[in-house]
Design a protein that fits this description.
This is Siderophore-interacting protein. InterPro entries: FAD-bd_FR_type, FNR_nucleotide-bd, Riboflavin_synthase-like_b-brl, SIP_FAD-bd, SIP_fam, SIP_rossman_dom. It holds the Pfam family FAD_binding_9. This protein has 320 residues and is of the alpha/beta class. It contains six helices and twelve strands.
Length: 320
C-alpha cells in the first residue's frame, strides 16, 4: 500500500499517514521497549515545535494476518467511519501510542521513539503486543499523526497537556506504566521555573527509569508488585498532596457523576487557567476514575485545573 497522501488531502487534513520502519530497538527494562522508527515521511510530522511532542498521541496501524492495510492516502473528514465500515478481518487494527521523542527536523534522517509496554510471562494477546513481542529492525508500520503543513501554531492534535501559561506554575503528573512515555516526554521540555511532582506506578523495581528534566519536578516511583493496580499509586498521591501546596479544600469538594469505565470513556481535560496549579492524570481507566474521585470529590481541588485520561481498561482490548 502507499501511505503517501495526495496533494489535495495533505492540504486539508490535519492528519497524515506516515510509512515508518524500525531502525533501532532498546530494551529499557523488563516492561519497557523503546522502538526507534525512521522514514522520510516523518519530515511532515508536526512534532510540537520547541515545546516538543509532550503527551502527543498517534495511531499505529497493524495489518491483519494475510492482508495488506487499506490505503490511508486521504485522512480528511469521514475517514475513520469508512475504515470502521470495512471488514474487521481485513482492515487491520489501530492502537494508540505516545511519541516519547521526535527528531524530525534538521539535516539528519527523521526519527521518532515510541516506548512499548511489554507483558513478559503473560503472553501477547493483542495485535500490538504480538507485534512488539516479535519486532525486528527493518519491520514496517503505518503511523497516523498530525500534519505539519496544517499546523496553526498551537499544540498538535492529540496533545492534552495544557498547564497554566503564567508564572509560579506547579504541576502534578500521575500515571501507571502506560503513562510513563508521556510523562517522560513532558518532563524533557518543561522549563526550569516549573515545580511540582511526577508520581508513577510501575510493575517492577527494575522498571524505574531515569526521566531527565530541567524543571524542579520531584519524580517519585512506586512498585505495584502483587498489589492491585493503583493501590500503591493512590498511597503515593495522598502522601504527595500532603507535602504540596495545591489548594486542597475539602469544603469545596465537588460531587462527580459516576463513570462506568466499562462502557464510557473517562476523558476530561479541564479548562485553560492563567497561573497556579495544574494536574495531569493518565493510565488505566478505573485507576484514574478513583484518583479523580479523590482529588476533586474529596480534596476539593478545582476540577478546571485537572486533566483525567483513561488510556485503557484492564481486561478489555482497545476499540479498533
Amino acid at each position: 500500500m502507499s501511505a503517501q497522501p495526495s496533494e489535495k488531502a495533505s492540504a486539508v487534513s490535519p492528519l497524515l499517514a506516515f510509512e515508518i520502519e524500525v531502525v533501532a530497538l532498546t530494551r529499557l527494562s523488563p516492561h519497557f521497549l523503546r522502538v526507534t522508527f525512521g522514514g522520510d515521511d516523518l519530515a511532515g510530522l508536526d512534532d510540537g515545535g520547541h515545546l516538543g511532542p509532550r503527551d502527543l498521541r498517534v495511531k499505529l496501524m497493524f495489518a491483519s494476518p494475510g492482508f495488506a492495510l487499506p490505503d490511508f492516502g486521504d485522512l480528511s473528514g469521514g475517514w475513520y467511519s469508512q475504515w470502521l465500515a470495512m471488514d474487521p478481518a481485513r482492515r487491520g487494527s489501530m492502537r494508540t501510542y505516545t511519541i516519547r521523542a521526535a527528531r524530525v527536523r534538521g539535516d539528519r534522517p527523521p526519527q521518532i521513539d515510541i516506548d512499548f509496554v511489554l507483558h513478559p510471562g503473560q503472553g501477547p494477546v493483542g495485535p500490538a503486543a504480538r507485534w512488539a513481542a516479535d519486532v525486528r529492525v527493518g519491520d514496517r508500520l503505518v503511523l497516523l499523526g498530525p500534519n505539519a503543513a496544517a499546523a496553526t501554531g498551537g499544540a498538535p492534535p492529540g496533545v492534552e497537556w495544557a498547564p497554566p501559561t503564567g508564572s509560579g506554575v506547579q504541576v502534578l503528573m500521575v500515571g501507571d506504566e502506560t503513562a510513563v512515555p508521556a510523562i517522560g516526554s513532558v518532563l524533557a521540555t518543561l522549563p526550569a521555573d516549573v515545580r511540582g511532582q511526577a508520581l508513577i506506578e510501575v510493575p517492577d523495581a527494575a522498571d524505574v527509569l531515569d526521566l531527565a528534566t530541567a524543571a524542579r519536578v520531584d519524580v517519585r516511583w512506586c512498585v505495584r508488585g502483587e498489589r492491585p493496580r493503583g493501590q500503591a499509586l493512590s498511597e503515593l498521591v495522598r502522601t504527595g498532596l500532603a507535602s504540596a501546596d495545591v489548594g486542597v479544600s475539602p469544603a469545596a469538594a465537588e460531587a462527580l457523576p459516576e463513570v462506568d469505565v466499562d462502557e464510557e470513556i473517562l476523558w476530561e481535560t479541564g479548562e485553560p487557567v492563567a497561573d497556579g496549579w495544574y494536574a495531569w492524570l493518565a493510565g488505566e481507566a478505573a485507576m484514574v476514575r478513583d484518583l479523580r474521585r479523590y482529588l476533586v470529590g474529596e480534596c476539593g481541588i478545582d476540577r478546571r485545573r485537572v486533566a483525567f485520561m483513561g488510556y485503557w481498561r484492564e481486561g478489555r482490548a482497545e476499540s479498533s
